[in-house]
């Protein structure tokens, strides 16, 4: 994690990842033996951090909040496993790594998607199945568009891919955390907008976009935050957003 930005929610983040870790060992061994599930420190924490920070903003902390943080991370992990599956695999079974093939990663990705659903059921949050399933559909729609537009220089298509594959999950994380914490409808809309803009900025950081484009989305995210009530934990959301602020077009190495 970057610096002390997550210091106030570190214990909650550890609880999220303890919950995830407990689901990664199956009868055949650790799922990391069958698919690549290594991610950057920021990718490991940012989506659960959004969930927990929003919940803290509304003074809500519960097992359901921790579980929602794990759920959005399960969805991210599954989408990334499927995204990394190659079009062509090594022919020689003796030389191939199962993580670099197709069959095992597909099964691991599906397993992780299954864990998002079972966690919803275990914590009586089935009413979030529809919005989360819709997010998964959008992520996969983005993947289809990306594979159908390889090497495209059309900025609008590339932004739509980024929105579908990256920003929708961040927006849903913020919105559902607000809903779980009892936020008013208007504020849930602001949280969705905040998450969408943060997700666009974060995705652009990952893709090496220009600082000007990244800052434009960060400015929009901060405007959404400004319209929320002033509470102590609002600072956490502001600092999380400012992590990706660029200076003189230089993207900070946090992703």
TrEMBL record:
Domain of life assignment: Bacteria
Name of protein: Polyprenyl synthetase
Organism, as annotated: Desulforamulus aquiferis
Lineage: Bacteria, Bacillati, Bacillota, Clostridia, Eubacteriales
């Amino acid at each position: 994690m970057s610096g002390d930005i997550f210091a106030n929610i570190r214990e909650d983040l550890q609880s999220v990842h303890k919950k995830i870790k407990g689901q990664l060992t199956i009868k055949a061994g650790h799922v990391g033996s069958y698919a690549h599930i290594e991610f950057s420190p920021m990718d490991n924490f940012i989506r659960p951090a959004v969930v927990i920070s929003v919940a803290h903003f509304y003074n809500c902390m519960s097992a359901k909040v921790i579980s929602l943080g794990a759920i959005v991370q399960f969805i991210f992990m599954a989408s990334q496993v499927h995204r990394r599956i190659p079009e062509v695999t090594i022919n020689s079974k003796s030389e191939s790594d199962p993580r670099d093939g197709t069959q095992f990663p597909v099964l691991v990705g599906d397993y992780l998607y299954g864990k998002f659903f079972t966690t919803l059921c275990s914590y009586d949050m089935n009413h979030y199945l529809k919005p989360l399933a819709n997010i998964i559909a959008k992520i996969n729609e983005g993947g289809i568009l990306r594979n159908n537009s390889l090497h495209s220089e059309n900025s609008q298509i590339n932004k739509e891919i980024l929105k579908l594959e990256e920003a929708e999950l961040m927006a849903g994380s913020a919105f559902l955390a607000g809903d779980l914490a009892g936020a008013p409808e208007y504020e849930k809309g602001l949280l969705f907008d905040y998450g969408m803009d943060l997700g666009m900025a974060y995705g652009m950081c990952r893709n090496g976009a220009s600082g000007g484009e990244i800052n434009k989305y960060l400015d929009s995210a901060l405007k959404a935050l400004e319209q929320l009530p002033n509470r102590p934990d609002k600072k956490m959301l502001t600092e999380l957003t400012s992590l990706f602020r660029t200076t003189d077009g230089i993207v900070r190495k946090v992703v």
